[in-house]
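Researcher: Quick test of sequence recovery. Tokens follow.
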């Protein structure tokens, strides 16, 4: 909060009523429980997934662990984007949670405040969660790191200053020229200074290198999981893979590494037994577009209940969270910060950047590597940047002979059957194309 007091939040009757708080908490808890129950019903689901289920549980074990840490004086940093270097946060002795909300109910109090029905529902849900304290884990946050990617998140970070200190990170939107990389390095160093002020712990070079090593190990485990997902019949669903990688945003990374080893070992056993997470003949789908934070797994669930299997994705809440390691070429602090800046800037294919040809290049590469048959491109209502890029991406995919369907959704369940109908038609089209190719090949080989 600024010295002048709240800049956005006016004391309007109903914003903080007990009834509203209780209702939002109750419905959020029910939503998470329902989504978790759906995930647990998947066939041939690895037993090791139970750890990740508990980690994401509303008021689960991780919340109580973080609360105990916080009560003893530990600091917790909330992040709003994949571009925040978590190695740096952990090197300061703080813990991290990703604040971007996947809950539907908190959208309503934010709508009352903002009066903008067309604004991104993830932004509104994240704000609404703070307004009515509907997610206890978010109430533990001592400072927010908010990279200014899209306009919605930039203003969200500003509004959140009415509750908690925010470190805005100025992201160069243009990726060409020497000035961009220099500016981003300065932003990383500025965040480092703010973290030291928050925790009272100087970030030592040795500590930072240890954290980078842990996260690079996590990157290796994620790469192993990606190899398993390339199989004709992968033993893990796309939803579970997203649940696993999003766990890096709230868990201790050393423990995540141990649990990933357990999961990978079990998946390899399931693969040897020929156990498939999807249905026979499932269409191989790449999921792209707007971020999808748990428990907003509406689109992935519809895809995998409609005859498709999400083999990979290009989401900033999925594949891109762990897509690239930090490569430190030298031993100096300057070189370490440059390496962090490079890892969290240049590989990022967020639609906020221009030029953003890297996104199309990566998608085309994934299509070939993972044997993708079709792309589902999802946009949240109000996600203008992804809406703009969707047309460009669809045209590029046509050149590769890969069909794409674009879906737009809100944070509610009102459009489920409409989306399901479109996804089912898309999956059937993919299967028909597959059958045609097989029959055509067979005719040519006669």
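Model:
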């Amino acid at each position: 909060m600024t010295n002048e007091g709240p800049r956005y939040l006016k004391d309007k009757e109903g914003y903080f009523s007990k009834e509203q708080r209780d209702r939002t908490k109750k419905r959020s808890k029910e939503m998470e429980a329902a989504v978790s129950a759906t995930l647990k019903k998947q066939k041939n689901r690895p037993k090791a997934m139970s750890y990740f289920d508990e980690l994401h549980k509303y008021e689960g074990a991780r919340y109580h662990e973080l609360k105990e840490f916080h009560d003893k004086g530990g600091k917790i940093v909330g992040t709003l984007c994949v571009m925040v270097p978590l190695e740096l946060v952990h090197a300061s002795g703080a813990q991290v949670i990703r604040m971007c909300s996947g809950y539907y109910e908190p959208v309503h109090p934010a709508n009352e405040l903002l009066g903008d029905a067309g604004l991104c529902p993830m932004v509104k849900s994240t704000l609404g969660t703070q307004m009515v304290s509907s997610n206890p884990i978010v109430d533990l946050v001592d400072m927010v790191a908010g990279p200014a990617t899209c306009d919605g998140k930039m203003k969200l970070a500003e509004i959140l200053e009415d509750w908690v200190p925010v470190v805005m990170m100025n992201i160069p939107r243009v990726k060409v020229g020497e000035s961009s990389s220099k500016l981003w390095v300065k932003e990383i160093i500025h965040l480092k200074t703010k973290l030291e002020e928050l925790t009272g712990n100087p970030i030592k070079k040795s500590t930072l290198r240890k954290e980078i090593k842990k996260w690079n190990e996590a990157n290796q485990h994620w790469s192993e999981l990606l190899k398993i997902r390339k199989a004709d019949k992968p033993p893990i669903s796309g939803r579970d893979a997203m649940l696993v990688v999003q766990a890096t945003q709230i868990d201790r990374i050393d423990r995540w590494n141990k649990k990933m080893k357990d999961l990978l070992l079990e998946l390899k056993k399931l693969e040897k037994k020929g156990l498939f997470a999807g249905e026979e003949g499932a269409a191989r789908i790449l999921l792209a577009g707007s971020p999808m934070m748990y428990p907003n797994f509406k689109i992935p669930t519809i895809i995998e209940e409609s005859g498709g299997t999400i083999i990979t994705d290009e989401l900033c809440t999925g594949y891109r969270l762990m897509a690239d390691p930090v490569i430190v070429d030298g031993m100096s602090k300057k070189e370490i910060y440059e390496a962090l800046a490079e890892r969290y800037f240049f590989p990022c294919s967020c639609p906020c950047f221009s030029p953003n040809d890297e996104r199309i290049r990566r998608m085309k590469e994934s299509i070939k590597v993972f044997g993708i048959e079709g792309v589902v491109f999802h946009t949240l209502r109000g996600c203008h940047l992804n809406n703009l890029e969707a047309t460009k991406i669809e045209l590029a995919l046509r050149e590769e002979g890969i069909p794409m369907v674009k879906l737009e959704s809100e944070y509610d369940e009102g459009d489920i059957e409409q989306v399901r109908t479109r996804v089912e038609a898309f999956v059937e089209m993919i299967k028909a194309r597959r059958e045609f190719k097989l029959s055509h090949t067979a005719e040519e080989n006669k």
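Strands lie at 76-79, 95-98, 143-147, 166-169, 283-289, 308-313, 374-380, 404-409.
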